[in-house]
Structure formats: C-alpha cells, structure tokens
Amino acid sequence: MTRIIERNGYFSIEKMQELFKSLGPTVSLDIQSHIVSPVRVGLQGVIKEHFGHDMVDEIFNYFSRKLANTDLTFMAEENSQNIVDLFILLKRKPFD
C-alpha cells in the first residue's frame, strides 16, 4: 500500500496501522449483519436523500436477500481465523 500511495504522488501517509485479529474457532460470524449494517450506516442518509425515506428499508431488505443467496464461504468462520484491518490516514499534497 505504501508504494501504491507514494507512486500516486497526490497524498502523503500521515499514519498507517495494521491490526491483526485472531478470531479463534469459537467466534461465529453473522455474515449478513457484518455486511449489511455497516453499509446501511454509511449509505442510509444518501439513499434517503435521493430516493426518499420509504425506499431505505426496501433497498436494504433486498440487499439482505441478495446476500443470503450469495456464496460467502470465503468469509466463513473457518476461513477467517486471521483478519487484518488496515487503517491509513492520508493527507492531500498541495498543488504545485
């Protein structure tokens, strides 16, 4: 990531932190709530503004149904023993 950001040239890295999590076999992930909830938090306001309040529940119910019919085995418990969260704080470089 560092090389990609430096090669871009428009940003400087202010802070970069990798967090390794070992979930262990006892943790059970509810895939839909781990995907749908954060997406809803991030997009609900935009969707409400553009499509109206009545559409928010309908859109996210549809999204949940689509996830239920999607193969998400790559996120299953046995495949997610070690998860890496990457946090990068970028600062836009001034224009020349």
From TrEMBL:
GO terms for biological process: methylation. One of its GO terms (molecular function) is methyltransferase activity. The lineage of its organism: Eukaryota, Viridiplantae, Streptophyta, Embryophyta, Tracheophyta. This is SAM dependent carboxyl methyltransferase. Keywords: Magnesium, Metal-binding, Methyltransferase, Transferase. Coiled coil: none annotated. It holds the Pfam family Methyltransf_7. InterPro entries: MeTrfase_7 (IPR005299), MeTrfase_capping (IPR042086), SAM-dependent_MTases_sf (IPR029063).
